[in-house]
Design goal:
Layout lengths: L16 H10 L6 H10 L11 E7 L17 H4 L4 E3 L6 E3 L3 H4 L5 E7 L8 H5 L7 H4 L11 H12 L10 E4 L28 E6 L29 E4 L11 H17 L14 H11 L2 H6 L6 H7 L3 H14 L4 E6 L16 H26 L6 E5 L4 E2 L13 E2 L3 E6 L7 E3 L1 E2 L6 E3 L4 H11 L7 E3 L5 E3 L13
Parallel strand pairs: 1-8, 1-9, 4-13, 5-6, 5-8
Antiparallel strand pairs: 2-3, 4-12, 6-7, 9-12, 10-11, 14-15, 16-17
Helix pairs in contact: 1-8, 11-12, 12-13
Length: 496
């Protein structure tokens, strides 16, 4: 058994420093390690397993319309196809929205999955990005309910910790940008799905914040709307900066002077960790303090977030919008050793009908705010990752919580409402196929005609590419095992 040497003074909560460090050291080696190692030794190596070293998950909250992105219906009636046309991409036979000319030029590097489907047409972020088997609107407002399953990035970090895999010093393994979901609105209720669920809270993503103004008044979201907002997703200044969220900073009671002693103690249990008795039931040391100490002693993540180090021309190629600059920061984080990076296109200012939730003023928002920014940022990210040799080893997944209705509604400005029976995701790199379309929808885009894919299948494929069989399990807080991707299965159609 590891013994921590040093001063055994009692802390304010009754624990000694020795207790705290011993508890913290055992967390990564707790329940589930035997399952991980057994699964690794028993499972045959299937194609694509572990092809990706890292992952960028692009999540456009609110849900983009497939008709005006990757599954246009040019031959459908106008109330279905809408007022935007479509153009040929550089992948023969694949048309995309006419407002995505740059995206059209990278379709030979991606796989478009046009046949995502599930039964919950609500903003069930947690259903899309966790293994939770069923969902209700009530759960969406209870982000910390232990009925929730862990976020995909949290699962990856948990599994990595069981293998003894850790990111470079100073780089959290599970990062989210530009800020915690729905933290910048007039109704900042935290949406569920981006937390560690029934795993320990130490596996929550570490979030950044963004300091920078919005330059343009965004189109209306809804009627009535008494206040308008300058939305940075529509444009921001080059002086905008990312910083670590206060939650990831050093706690006030841990001074720089005390940091040296804490590091000395940490080094003691690191030297002896291989001798620990992994069967002990212990709690993990608070992860945010671990991250904070790491950030104090290494500039790696802060340097990666410093997008001003990039040439101005490249920053403008990504688009001087918050989504564009966030995608650029994500690429820099991957270069610096990040394992899992989440990029949100989130609500700003007004929560109701925010971001891509275009129930009203659908076309003004697509034309002025949403599609131009997406066109620049996504195409630049794929091109930049590819030219640097990063795309082959990095999975880039673009996926939302559902799609939007085939038929345009009669609300002010027109709109498409929630629809989960058929929608689209796009994957690139990290062992996925290039230049492929998977699945097909009906002529109105309302239902899947071929190759239905669930969001759980997308998760299972993500885990597979990052090196984990989707049938592996993780324990809840009662020790009960659950498959990491819920009911999901690997989709070989998406692999190279």
């Amino acid at each position: 058994m590891l013994r921590i040497q040093g001063n055994p003074r009692t802390l304010c909560d009754g624990l000694t420093r020795r207790d705290l460090l011993q508890v913290g050291a055992l967390g990564p080696l707790g329940i589930g390690l035997g399952d991980v190692m057994a699964a690794e030794s028993a499972a045959p190596q299937s194609p694509g397993l572990g092809s990706a070293k890292s992952c960028i998950l692009l999540f456009p909250y609110g849900s983009p319309p497939t008709h005006e992105t990757f599954d246009p219906k040019p031959d459908a009636p106008v109330e279905i196809r809408g007022e935007l046309g479509s153009i040929e991409s550089n992948l023969p036979g694949l048309r995309v929205c006419e407002l995505l000319p740059r995206v059209a030029g990278v379709m030979d590097k991606v796989t478009v999955a046009r046949s995502l489907t599930h039964q919950y047409p609500l903003h069930g972020v947690a259903y899309a990005v966790t293994g939770i088997p069923t969902y209700t609107p009530a759960l969406e407002t209870k982000a910390r309910d232990l009925k929730h399953w862990p976020y995909v990035g949290s699962v990856v970090e948990y599994l990595d910790s069981q293998r003894g895999l850790h990111p470079p010093s100073g780089m959290p393994g599970n990062l989210g940008l530009p800020w915690l979901m729905n933290s910048q609105t007039d109704n900042p209720a935290v949406n569920a799905g981006v937390f560690s669920g029934f795993l320990n809270n130490r596996y929550d993503p570490v979030w950044t914040d963004f300091d920078g103004p919005g330059l343009h008044v965004a189109p209306k979201n809804t009627v009535p709307q008494t206040k308008r907002f300058k939305n940075p997703f529509g444009g921001t200044t080059p002086e905008g900066r990312f910083r670590m969220s206060p939650a990831a900073r050093l706690s006030k009671d841990l001074s720089i002077e005390r940091l040296g002693l804490r590091r000395s103690l940490l080094e003691q249990f690191e030297r002896g960790r291989r001798d620990l008795d992994a069967s002990l039931g212990v709690q993990a040391m608070d992860r945010q303090r671990e991250v904070a100490m790491s950030l104090l002693t290494s500039s790696r993540v802060l340097d990666a977030l410093d997008i001003d180090r990039e040439p101005r021309a490249l920053r403008e190629r990504y688009g001087m919008t918050l989504f564009g600059q966030t995608c650029l920061a994500a690429r820099r984080l991957i270069e610096s050793g990040a394992r899992f990076v989440t990029v949100l296109w989130d609500c700003f200012g007004q929560f109701a009908n925010g971001a891509w939730d275009t129930h009203q003023y659908h076309y003004p928002r697509l034309k002025e705010l949403l599609l131009p920014g997406f066109d620049l940022a996504y195409s630049a990210l794929i091109e930049d990752m590819s030219s640097r040799g990063l795309l082959d080893e990095t999975l880039v997944m673009w996926m939302s919580e559902h799609g939007r209705t085939p038929k345009i509604n009669s609300k002010p400005g027109g709109g498409r409402d929630h629809w989960s029976r058929a929608y689209t995701a796009v994957v690139a790199g990290g062992g996925t196929a290039a230049g492929r379309v998977v699945g097909r929808t009906t002529p109105d885009g309302g239902d899947v005609r071929e190759t239905p894919i669930s969001p759980k299948d997308m998760q299972a494929t993500l885990y597979h590419l990052l090196g984990y069989d989707s049938q592996m399990t993780m324990p809840d807080r009662n020790g009960q095992p659950h498959p990491i991707a819920g009911t999901g299965s690997l989709r070989p159609e998406l692999l190279s």
